[in-house]
Structures are given as structure tokens and as C-alpha cells.
């Protein structure tokens, strides 16, 4: 009796399970902490290790790409079908700092399996999720009898994600020709829960600015002058107070221009997720839900643009009191953006709005940090449908759809390469990203392998992208 | 030809001018800096010196009163007219810190006369203005042929004013019986300018609070949670933004309850002062006038209650950006109060208002520092009229009226003793209080002596206070 493709994938994975875990453990033992200069040699070692492993996996091209900071790894395995889609997998091989004394039960760089979990720094974020693609592509070949993948497969695994990806955009721009793809698969996210496999369809963008307000040329006495000259701390507060209207909407004119609204289908799919708001508030360590009127909490964090005050300061903040009118105040704002918003237009709208708020006698300066664009792939995009089907086969149940409220370098790939970004991750909220005792669920890790194995066939069968 | 009272006063002062300046210089050489513990013996020496000098001047009672901090000096010289008013003069014998390297042209504790100015720490604030009363009362006796003053004269010269008068209220309460007076004359203020003698008729009071706002139990990620939970920095800003209405009025309900409004006469008198708003803005180091609609700058700083933000802080204030929703924020507010406002009622109104502003999920705590009550003496009060006439005789021109925007311990005297507070000062804005090269104008110093000499006769002639 011949095997079904699914059972062939299963059988291959089962045979290679122990070796796969040994290899992953070897990689996790390399403390590739990009934020700590003393670990720079380890980050380089991690890149070399991965490039060698990808070569051993069968990738005909596997290179370490230097940057102004830590190196990235690039690999390529062309399909024997010239018309197949080209897919670029993104992940990162650097990890967050970790030390036993932070609260780890065991050495963070000595992987250990307890029950059905593999504990180590990087187990979920992101080495485990990069590594499942290596066994995935081998299982894909074994189950299909191919000698090359059904799609043109490329991997870009950066080495500075945990340090804010300072050189990533330049790297992508430099190698845009070789990185060209019809779709980008980001494996650096998670899914809803062990029981609810989900595919993330987009991330919010981010505009950040610091607004400095200047009043008197020095702190002045509030008894002598109070009530008769403008106070920059008051102006700063009124500026922030004017940021939202009474419905929790951002009150900057033009802010919502172009926003891609949620479809009825998306809202219905979000609403089907088993969301427990009380539990979510505990995770948020917050004591109430609050936001834009007319939207649920999930809609607010995934699909609506927002404005937040990340910091405010001015005048005397020490113990007791000091009767001054402060000379200056500062406000740090960040704006999460959703698909359809133009980063530059939002920045200009914020700057114009802020300048209009400054009362006479208050000088205002606004500086924007480099921003991040939002990304979103429509539910009916063929590549997204393939990811959902592949994941559904691996998990044996239909997948649902989420979005990500944060912002990441994926948007640079979308923008520079002009390709839709899809998110394939098997991490769950309890995995403890950036926390002590980070782990990956072994069952889910192998579902990731399985998803990867199914995905390349499904994409090739169901999608013929237009020529780039 | 017999002398007029004025020429007799002049003649007496002229004869004792050199000795008076020598004595004042001796006192100024004592560095009675109350804020610096190493000068505590000097502050005690200053008190002893003054008590001895008052005894030598003729005061039958001159005592050093200990406090929990630096000592005060009390002196008493009863009138031979039992029905005469009792007047308590307030001043202080401690001084601000001063060091040559702060920018002094000469040693701050080695008095020097340059041109018509006496330079030394304390020359104007406040030893010079305390000391003019000693020659004043002698000139009063000499010109009137009396052996005791026309009024029951008391002096209370504290030793901690430059350290915030921490023990003053307790001192006044302890000695309230001996300090009992029909009027308090504060000689620790100034007048409009060399050419425009003025009497100050009141000071603003002060309520101060810190409001702490608590949101999430720790800083949380603004990508994951932004837009869906309340942000305490936003709440702090909105609180401050709600502090004033669009007319620059304080928007705390009940804040203006009981406010004694300016009379038409007071407004007309203020308007007659040679006020140069551009020059005032330079002094305020500010770039626009701004305040309660319908009031002039002088009215705003002297006669209107205000609210100011002295400090605001929350979240990330360092370089660059940090995408957090901060866990907490703090606002420091101060409210200047005018006559008719009740300190306790204002504090309660502010607390209630603040609590009502807190959105769901934000916990708010309000703490008030000890406040200061406002004081104001009506223009038609007989004692105020006497001060104005005495000063007018000394300066040879009618005096005008001002108020003081700041707040001070005078209000404790008003409240504990139940007596109106009048302000008799001859310092001018250029005297450099708390600054290097502090000075007093010698001409004005002797106008102070003259005013003091005339005042006691005028008060006794024109005012028979009701029995206390």
C-alpha cells in the first residue's frame, strides 16, 4: 500500500526527529546574543554553523553575508520547475541576552527537554522556528520524490533582530536582486494557542517622534510669574490631551487617511477566536480595556492605528515640591500604523498638528525616528491560502487568522522586494520570548516541520505568480 | 524757629547716619546663612547681636527665642499711651548662601559702599530692611520728644526664612499671646521702583500637590497592547489639559468660590503703574504673556488665583525612543490663592476634580504639601492708610499700591494673630535678592528709616483699634 503524502511526511520526520533535535541543540548552545559585544564572536559562529548546516541540508547556495554589524545567512535552493513561485523565508539567528541568575531553572545555553518542552534561549525566538524549515524541506523532497523543492526557496536569516535590525534594510537593499521573491514567509511569530493554529496576516507599522516644547529661557518662579506666561509643561499636556477625541480616536487631522478598514469577514473571523478579555488584561497587567469606540480589543491591537505617549517629562520630578514654571518639556509619542496609511504622510500630519497646538510664546521642535511601514496580506491571497492549508494539514484542523500589533523588519522586505509578507509561526504565548526559561513545545515544533513540508507543494500547485 | 516734624526727623537721621551704617555693616559681616549647617553658629550670633542692638536702641524687652531650628529675636517697646495700637514688625535675620565665586565683585560678607549703594549679602534681604526700624524709632522719639513710641511696638525677626520657615508657625502659635497685635508690618518686600514708591497690600497663598497616576502594573509593550488599555501618561496629560478652560480660567469646579474680586479702584490704581510689558517679559525670560482672559498681566500675577504645572513625568525620558505604555505618571501642581479662597476647600476641590478625571483602569493618588493662606488688607484700612501716608511723607510723593504674587509666612501671622498684614519695604527689583552683588540703595534705606519714624505717630493719631 502506497503512502499518502501526509503519512510519508510523518514517517520521514519521525525517522529524523532525534538527529534534528541534536542539531538544534548544538545551535542553541551557541550564545548568539547580538546586544552584548562580548558575544559578537558567538553571533559569527552561529552564522557559520547555520550556513554549514544549510549546505548539509542540500541548499546549493549558503553564504554568510556581512553587515556593518552582525552577519546574516543567505541560502538558496532553486526549483527544477522554472515557473514555480519564488519564496523567501525570513528569520533570525541572534537571541536575547540570558543568564542563569535572571531566573532560569537551568543554563539558558544548555538546552534541556523537560516533558514535551525544549528549554533554551532561542528555542522559540527564533532558532527553533528557523530550524524547522531545514527538516521541512527534506521531508517535502522525501514525500514527493523530488530532488529540488517545488518552489524556488530562499532563506534570509539575520543576526541583529534582537538589537533592532539596524543594518537590515541596507542589507536587503544591497542584495535586493538576489532576494527577489514572489512572497516572503516570516517565521518569527506565534500562533493563538496550542489548540488554535492561526496564521498572522499583517503587522502594524510604527512612527515615533519626540516633541520638545520650550517656554521661558530658564525655570522661573511660579509665584512671581505664574498665571501670566505660558507654561511648556501645560502646553505639552494639552498637546497630549488633544491627541485623542472623546471616542478614543486619534484626533490628528488626516491620520486615518487611506486606512484599510476591516472587512466583515475579518471581523467575523476575529470574533470567532476564543478570546478571554479578563485573561488578556492579566497578561497586559492592566486594569481596564480602553480604546477606539466601535472596535473590539483584538481589532484595536491588530487592525486599528493608534497613538500612545511613551514618555512625558518637564519641570521638577523629585521629592516634594518646587514652585517653578519649567523652561521646557518633552513628549515622546508613537503611532502604530495599519495598511493603507503612508508613513511619511502620517509624520507630516503629526508635525503640522503639533505645531498648530503650540500656544504663543512656546517654541516646539519635532523629531521623528526612522519609522516602520505596516504590512498586510489579504485573506484571499493565494500564498496566504497555501500557508493556511499547509498548516491545517499539519494540525488536522482549520486554521484561523490573526494579525500582529507590533512592528518589525518584515515591512522592509515587503517594501524593498515588493512582495507580500506571510507569517508562519508555531510559537505560543507561554513560550516566554525574552524571558527566563524560554521554551518551545516539541509537538508544535514538529507541526512546524510538517507545515513547511506541505507548504512548498501546495504553493507550487496552486499559485503561478505573474512574472516579476 | 521750631522744626517741623519732618525736618526734625531728617536732622536726627543725618546726625546718626554714619553710626547706623557702621552698625548695619557689623551685622552684615555675620554670615547668618540658615540653609548651611556650618553657619548655624553664625545664625545664633546674628540673633544675639540683634537682641543686644535692640536693647541698646531702647527696647525694654529684647529676647532670643529658640526654635527647633535657628533662633528668632523678639523685642517689645510699649507705648505710654495704653489705648494706642499694637504693631508687630516682621522680618528675618538669616540670609541666602553667598560665595565670592558665585560672581560677587567683593566678599559678600564684607559690606562695601560703591556710589550710593551698599553691597553685601542681606543688605536688602532682609537685614537692611529690619535695621531701618531701629533708627526709625529713635528718630520718631527725637522728633516728637517722646520717651516711648506712640504705638505699642513689637518686633519678631525670624532666623529661618531663607530655609522655608519650617518652625515659624509653631513659634507664632507658641507665643501668640505675647505677639498679639492690631496690625503686622512686614518689612521683607520691595516697592515698584526708585521713582515709584508703593505699598504692597497682600500676598497670594499656595496649595501644592503631587498627583500620581497608576496604569499597568509594569511598563508594557505598546505594540502588543497599544490602543487597547488606558495609558497613565495620557491620563496625566489629559488631567493637566483639563486644568484650564479655553479662557485660561482654572477649570476645577469650586476653585473660584469666595474669591475677593478686584475693585474698580484697585484696577485703576494698578493701571496707573508705569508697567512695561515687554520689559517684564524680559525679566520673566518668557516669550509671550498668557493667562486668564479679561485681566491684565499685573492683575494676573497679583490678584488672580492660578494653577501651574511645576513638573510632569512618566515613561521613557531618555535619548531615542522606547515603545512602552508606562506603568505610572506623576504631576506636580501648585495653585496660587487669593483672599477669600479657603485653602482646605481648594485642596478638597482639586482632589475631587482629579479623581473624577481618572479613566477606568487608572488609579490616582493625590498628596498635598502644607499650604500657605493668602492675605490681603483692604485699601481703606486705617493702618494701610497710615503706612501710605508715612511713606508718602518720606518720599515726597503719593504712594501707589501693589500686591505680591508669591506666598510667604506673613500669612501665618495674619491667621494665628488675627491681624491685618501690611507690607513696608523699600527694596527695588534691581537689588538682586538671592543673587550675587546684592545691594541696597542708600537713599531708599534712609527713606525707610524716615517712613518708620513717621509711621508710629501717624498710626497713633489716626487709628484707635477696637479692643482685641
Describe this structure in words.
Chains A, B: Pfam families: M20_dimer (PF07687), Peptidase_M20 (PF01546). Chains A, B: One of its GO terms (biological process) is proteolysis. Chains A, B: InterPro entries: Cyt/Met_Dipeptidase, Peptidase_M20, Peptidase_M20_dimer. The structure is a homodimer of 468-residue chains. Chain A has 468 residues and is an alpha+beta fold. Chain A contains 14 helices and 18 strands. In chain A, the strands form 5 sheets. Chain A has a 6-stranded mixed β-sheet with strand order 1-2-6-3-7-17, with helices on both faces. In chain A, helix 1 crosses helix 14 and helix 12 packs across helix 14. The first copy, chain A, is elongated and about 85 Å long. The first copy, chain A, starts with a helix and ends in a 6-residue tail after the last helix. At the A-B interface, strand 9, strand 10, helix 6, helix 7 and helix 10 of A face strand 9, strand 10, helix 6, helix 7 and helix 10 of B.
In terms of DSSP E residues, the strand content of chain A is 15-25%
- Given the C-alpha coordinates, what overall shape of chain A results? elongated
CATH superfamily of the largest domain in chain A: Zn peptidases
Extended strand count of chain A:
18
Query: Which consecutive residue ranges of chain A, at least 5 long each, have pLDDT under 50?
Result: none
Helical percent range of chain A? 25-40%
**Assembly form of the protein:** homodimer
CATH class of the largest domain in chain A, named Alpha Beta
**CATH-defined fold name of the largest domain in chain A:** Aminopeptidase
Overall mean pLDDT of chain A stands at 95
- Which CATH architecture of the largest domain in chain A is right? 3-Layer(aba) Sandwich
Q: Could you give the distance between the termini of chain A?
A: 42 Å
The biggest beta sheet of chain A is recorded as: 6 strands, mixed
Amino acid at each position: 500500500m502506497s503512502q499518502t503524502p501526509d503519512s510519508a511526511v510523518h514517517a520521514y520526520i519521525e525517522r529524523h526527529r532525534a538527529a534534528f533535535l541534536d542539531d538544534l541543540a548544538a545551535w542553541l548552545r551557541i550564545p548568539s546574543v547580538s546586544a552584548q559585544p562580548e558575544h559578537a564572536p558567538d553571533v559569527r559562529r552561529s552564522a557559520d554553523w547555520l550556513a554549514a548546516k544549510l549546505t548539509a541540508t542540500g541548499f546549493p547556495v549558503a553564504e554568510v553575508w556581512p553587515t556593518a554589524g552582525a552577519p546574516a545567512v543567505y541560502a538558496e535552493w532553486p526549483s527544477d520547475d522554472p515557473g514555480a513561485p519564488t519564496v523567501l523565508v525570513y528569520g533570525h539567528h541572534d537571541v536575547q541576552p540570558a543568564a542563569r541568575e535572571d531566573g532560569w531553572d537551568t543554563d539558558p545555553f544548555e538546552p534541556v527537554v523537560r516533558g514535551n518542552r525544549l528549554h533554551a534561549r532561542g528555542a522559540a525566538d527564533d532558532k527553533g522556528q528557523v530550524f524547522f524549515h531545514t527538516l521541512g524541506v527534506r521531508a517535502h523532497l522525501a514525500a514527493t520524490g523530488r530532488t529540488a523543492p517545488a518552489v524556488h526557496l530562499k532563506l534570509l536569516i539575520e543576526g541583529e533582530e534582537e538589537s533592532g535590525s539596524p543594518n537590515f534594510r541596507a542589507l536587503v537593499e544591497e542584495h535586493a536582486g538576489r532576494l527577489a521573491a514572489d512572497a516572503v514567509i516570516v517565521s518569527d511569530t506565534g500562533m493563538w494557542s496550542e489548540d488554535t493554529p492561526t496564521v498572522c496576516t499583517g503587522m502594524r507599522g510604527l512612527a515615533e517622534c519626540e516633541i520638545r516644547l520650550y517656554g521661558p529661557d530658564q525655570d522661573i518662579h511660579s509665584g512671581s510669574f505664574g498665571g501670566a506666561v505660558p507654561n511648556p509643561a501645560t502646553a505639552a499636556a494639552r498637546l497630549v490631551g488633544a491627541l485623542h477625541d472623546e471616542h478614543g480616536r486619534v484626533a490628528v487631522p488626516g491620520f486615518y487617511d487611506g486606512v484599510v478598514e476591516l472587512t466583515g469577514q475579518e471581523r467575523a473571523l476575529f470574533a470567532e477566536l476564543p478570546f478571554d478579555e479578563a485573561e488578556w488584561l492579566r497578561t497586559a497587567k492592566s486594569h481596564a480595556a480602553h480604546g477606539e469606540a466601535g472596535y473590539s480589543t483584538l481589532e484595536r491591537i491588530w487592525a486599528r492605528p493608534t497613538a500612545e505617549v511613551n514618555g512625558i517629562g518637564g519641570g521638577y520630578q523629585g521629592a516634594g515640591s518646587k514652585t517653578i514654571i519649567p523652561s521646557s518639556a518633552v513628549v515622546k509619542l508613537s503611532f502604530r500604523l495599519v495598511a493603507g496609511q503612508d508613513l511619511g504622510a502620517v509624520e507630516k500630519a503629526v508635525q503640522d498638528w503639533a505645531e498648530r497646538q503650540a500656544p504663543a510664546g512656546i517654541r516646539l521642535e519635532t523629531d521623528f525616528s526612522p519609522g516602520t511601514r505596516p504590512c498586510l496580506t489579504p485573506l484571499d491571497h493565494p500564498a496566504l491560502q497555501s500557508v493556511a492549508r499547509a498548516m491545517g494539514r499539519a494540525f488536522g484542523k482549520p486554521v484561523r487568522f490573526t494579525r500582529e500589533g507590533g512592528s518589525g523588519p518584515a515591512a522592509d522586505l515587503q517594501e524593498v522586494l515588493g512582495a507580500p509578507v506571510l507569517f508562519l509561526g508555531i510559537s505560543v504565548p507561554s513560550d516566554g520570548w525574552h524571558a527566563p526559561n524560554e521554551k518551545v513545545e516539541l509537538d508544535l515544533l514538529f507541526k512546524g516541520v510538517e507545515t513547511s513540508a506541505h507548504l512548498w507543494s501546495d504553493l507550487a500547485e496552486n499559485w503561478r505568480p505573474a512574472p516579476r
